[in-house]
């Protein structure tokens, strides 16, 4: 067959498929455009996250955790009663203290850690997920998510465990 005498097979399939669709109404067109704009915005946010060099809020949360761990170590050696008392004074989660009105214990445990490995694992997770989430959600939303997660984790810990609870695993 010579070009021009019969349609190309791929072109014919495309034309056949186009004939199956009805034209979009003005309202349908607006919906499609809005959906495409939203998809483009999501891709742009993901690209911005990939290009982001430094996450200020994530770094600040990590620094607070390290500083408070150093302070708790200064006040008591890891693993002894003085260390447990230091963590309690600093705000470790405790259902009894919470029921007496120590509501600040719902946030404080997210910044306290019981050992160096515990701190390192939580900081690794915080840095890995935090840098992405901070870039994707934005700093205010990321911090709100962290705070709400910390509240939920601390509340669950206070309801279902005895003794002290610390760590950012809930956040």
Structural class, please? mainly alpha
Helix % is: 55-70%
User: How does the major sheet shape up?
Assistant: none
- Count of β-strands: 0
Compute the average pLDDT. Answer: 83
What proportion strand? under 5%
- General form: elongated
Low-pLDDT ranges: none
Q: What Rg do the Cα atoms give?
A: 27 Å
Distance between the termini: 68 Å
Order of SSEs, N→C? HHHHHHH
Put simply, the count of helices is 7
Structural write-up:
This protein has 171 residues and is an all-alpha fold. It contains seven helices and no strands. It is elongated, with a radius of gyration of 27 Å. The mean pLDDT is 83.
What is this structure, in a nutshell?
The protein is an all-alpha fold and 171 residues long. Helices cover 68% and strands 0% of the residues.
How do the strands and helices of this protein lay out in sequence?
Layout: H1 9-19, H2 26-51, H3 56-75, H4 81-90, H5 95-99, H6 116-137, H7 139-160
Helix pairs in contact: 2-6, 3-4, 3-6, 6-7
Q: What would the keywords be for this entry?
A:
single chain, 171 residues, mainly alpha, 7 helices, elongated
């Amino acid at each position: 067959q010579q070009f021009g005498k019969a349609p190309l097979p791929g072109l014919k399939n495309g034309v056949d498929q186009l004939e199956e669709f009805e034209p979009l109404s003005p309202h349908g067109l607006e919906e499609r455009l809005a959906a495409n704009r939203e998809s483009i915005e999501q891709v742009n946010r993901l690209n911005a996250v990939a290009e982001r060099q430094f996450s200020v809020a994530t770094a600040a949360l990590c620094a607070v955790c390290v500083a408070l761990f150093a302070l708790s170590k200064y006040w008591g050696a890891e693993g002894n009663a003085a260390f447990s008392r230091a963590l309690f004074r600093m705000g470790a989660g405790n259902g009894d203290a919470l029921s007496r009105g120590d509501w600040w214990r719902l946030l404080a445990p997210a910044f306290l850690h019981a050992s160096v490995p515990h701190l390192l694992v939580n900081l690794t997770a915080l840095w890995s997920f935090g840098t992405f989430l901070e870039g994707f959600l934005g700093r205010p939303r990321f911090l709100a998510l962290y705070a709400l997660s910390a509240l939920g984790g601390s509340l669950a810990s206070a309801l279902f465990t005895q003794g002290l609870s610390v760590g950012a695993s809930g956040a």
